[in-house]
Structures are given as C-alpha cells and as structure tokens.
Input
Amino acid sequence: MGFTMNGTGRLTFTGTVLSNETGNITLNAGEFYASSGSSTVSNDLVWNEGLLIFDLSTIDNSSNTININNAFTKGSGETFAFDFGNSGLINETYTLMTFASTDFALSDFTAVNTMGGNFSFGTTEINEATFQTLQYAVIPEPGTLVLLGIALGSLLLFRRRK
Output
C-alpha cells in the first residue's frame, strides 16, 4: 500500500512512518521534512523529485535524521536537492540518513541554502546490523571565506580608527 506525495505541499513527520503498512513512501514533488530528531521509514523511500529539508545544528554535529529500514531508491527524477536552511557549523559532518541499500551516487545530490559542502557515504551499526549513511560536511566555498575575511578586516580597521 504505502503512500505517494505529489504536488507542492510539505510533509512533516516525526517518529515512525508506515510502521504497520506494506509498501513504500514515494516522493514525487513537494517538500519532505523530518522534523526534530530521528524519524523512521519502515519500508523503502523512493525519491523521484522534490526537496528533503534538514535542520543542521549550530551547536554540534547533530541534525534531524531519516532512518530507512530498507532501500533509499533513486526514482525517475533528475533533481535531488537537500535544503539546509543556511544552518550548520563550518567543518562539521552531519549524518542525514541511514538506509539498508541505495542506488544513488553522490553526484546525484545537490545542496541549497548552505555555505557549501560535500556529500559522502559511510556506514554505521544499529542494533547489530550495518547500515549505510548519507553525510554532509559543511565546508564553505572560498568566496564565502574571502567575504568573511573582508568583513572581519573592516571591523578591525573601523575599531582601530576609533
């Protein structure tokens, strides 16, 4: 059975999705937001297009996480974007998702509303089972660092003049 999200709405969830259902979650369009903490998808998550929204902590390397018990599957779409809402700490790596398997490549993903960064795959142990992870490291682009340096230099120069 499962369910399919179409349109321009936002699906927000916490806890477990489809715990007593058979079938998959299919994201065709719109926004999929796993709010606060860890959320679990009991079956497969098929991503055709749309936006996955994550809040990256500005205190440590925690973020909201989607744990998929089965496969994280690439659907028919071409754009697979993560929206980080300009959150996160420079040089921190955040675990976004865990899953049993995937057919995505890192080059399939793009990040929006971020200072810059890189996606990577890893592994983790959950209840004595090995799962794959999708991680994001916040690494500002050189242009961002130059602008930050100019701003700090200007502040120091302005302060010296007083």
User: Anything to note?
Assistant: The radius of gyration is 18 Å. DSSP finds one helix and 14 strands in the chain. Residues 3-161 form one domain. Residues 1 and 54 are 27 Å apart (CA to CA).
